[in-house]
Amino acid sequence: MASEASLRVSVDIGGTFTDLVVEREDCLRLFKSPTVPDDPVLGILNVLGMAAAADGLALEAFLGRVESFAHATTRGLNAVLTGATARTALLTTAGHPDVLLLREGGRRDPFDFTTPFPEPYVPRSLTFEVDERVSATGAVLRPLDVAALEGTCDRLIEAEVEAVAVCLLWATVNPAHERAVGEVLRRRLPGVPHTLSHALNPSLREYRRASSTAIDASLKPLMSAYFDGLTARLRAAGLTGRILMVTSIGGVADVDDATAMPILTINSGPSMAPVAGRAYAFTDLGADEVIVADAGGTTYDVTLVRKGEIPSTRSAWVGAEGTGHMTGLPSIDVKSVGAGGGSIAWVDPGGLLHVGPHSAGSVPGPACYGRGGAAATVTDAALVLGYLDPASFSNGSMTLDPAAALAAVTRDVAGPLGLDAVGAAQAILELTTEQMVRAIEEITLQQGIDPGRAVLVGGGGAAGLNAVAVAGRLGSRSLVVPAVGAALAAAGALMSDLTAVYSATVPAVTSSFDTGKVNRALAGLLGRCREFAAKMPGSGTSITLYAEARYPQQIWELEVPLRVRAFEPGDVEEFENDFHAMHRQILGIADEDSPVEVVSWDARVRIALPGRGGTLTTRLADPRPPSVRRAFVTGHGMADVPVRPLATIAPGEQVPGPVLIESPFTTVVIADTTSTAELGPSGSLIINGGDAA
């Protein structure tokens, strides 16, 4: 039986697998179990049971040793995408009911007239006008008509709304009317949750503020039930430690805070892989220019880390960019494409091959799973090419059916294209690689970054199938595949801090800078950060101040870190210079004779969790000896290829390609004859030379 050392665990629920990472004494262990779409908490308990059994413990005894449980979920995201949220009403200032209709965005192709104008997140039939008005300076132009609001509440009750979003004009400057509306809603609609825009997202942009408020309110009934059920079932199973939820900004929050603001978790899964990828790239290669790629069963998520900083954006979309719904809150900037292990391959009537965006998921899954799936997927193609061991898939928890994979690839791709099965499978993998490359080029070349100069980190259970090929197409100097890369997002949760972001809308221009007004806003933000830190036990606190700034008449802002906690004479000029330098770095030009306009001020507080270290070392045990398997080699076709379990590679050993390097949960395919692999300090696999040079 394992020692009684305390544990930290993290869980990431993906479309195909539920990943669990367990940390004990700075070492990681990885477990995977199929996701249960109808009952995701059951999937969590199943994978926890696997970890308990590995320690020779009952689940209750195992959970009794867990001091913190971190969880990333796509439940809120999926609810918004599928329209499974609560029946939500929007209250807005009289005369402005179209704030969600007159929106940001639009169709990507302006000449594609088949794309309809998107419907507002809350329909006009559930949008109600509040008789009040506040000016841009915060002055009350028209007092709140409480009697009329009481009548509106009668209509809300009659409409049987399940949640209410409140977004009044200039509530970010003077929130008195929004607070009064909140008091009336608490009295008249007890038990119906509501969200006030000034408390959630004090943004200057009306559409973003209204959109985030509506999304948050609509998620509260669903996510409160999910978080409450998760907490109750984990406690009943024996968990006594702290429960944390992963947030979209790349940190974690206590489950009670996530329940109060469920929109914080909407992009929680993709936000964690960059945290882990950055740490492994720096530990193994000292790199601070990093492309982090996370290939799951459904999507391929990529993030660019510049100078060690993970970028965030307030322009994150739920659904298609431009026609979906904008969250309007800070979120890790992640680019996603439908190219995962479960992505379905198909040929259109014109004879063109496609991969994705639809996925077979975990139920029914790829054809080779033998669970009723019939469509050919990327996983089926990899099995046909010999890249996967059918007898030990997912650490031996599943046995794959090569005949079913061969039949699916032959029927869906080889037949329509006039190819043999191997040629069709290779075409599927090559097209998947190209889709991954395009996603990476979109976030690098458009920002003036040569992807060949960055280190590529390949994570996710399906990453190893294409990672070397992607690195070769990009010309990346090195590829890092962490040993725990099959659960990179879950590992990132263990490396994350408790995080909160606060904002204040205090416009300022450097040519007529009101130092007193700005410093009062900064002091307020610092006070909120210290209040957060005071109630959150941790081992260290850091606070960073930012300005969202632009040149006058510009549409979009840049986030500029502040060097000071309060402005003194000379600091304004230094801030101007910092903005000019960032503008030149990101956009290639700067107007150094122009003043700088600040639209809002932000503060980000991070608290290191007790026991959290830096990068976590991993050596996954694997009893299998080296072997040989028939697999596809670029330029040679099917051949006998060495198979090396990752655990058999010694530090300092150079492993030449072609070779299949297997860990319990992923296979790294090196299908060329010029690349070599070795172990990094963290136990990661580092691939250099040849096509990856």
Automatic annotation (TrEMBL):
Residues 8-188 form the Hydantoinase/oxoprolinase N-terminal domain. It comes from the Bacteria. Residues 209-500 form the Hydantoinase A/oxoprolinase domain. InterPro entries: ATPase_NBD, Hydant_A_N, Hydantoinase_A, Oxoprolinase-like. Pfam families: Hydant_A_N, Hydantoinase_A. This is Hydantoinase/oxoprolinase family protein. It comes from Nonomuraea typhae.
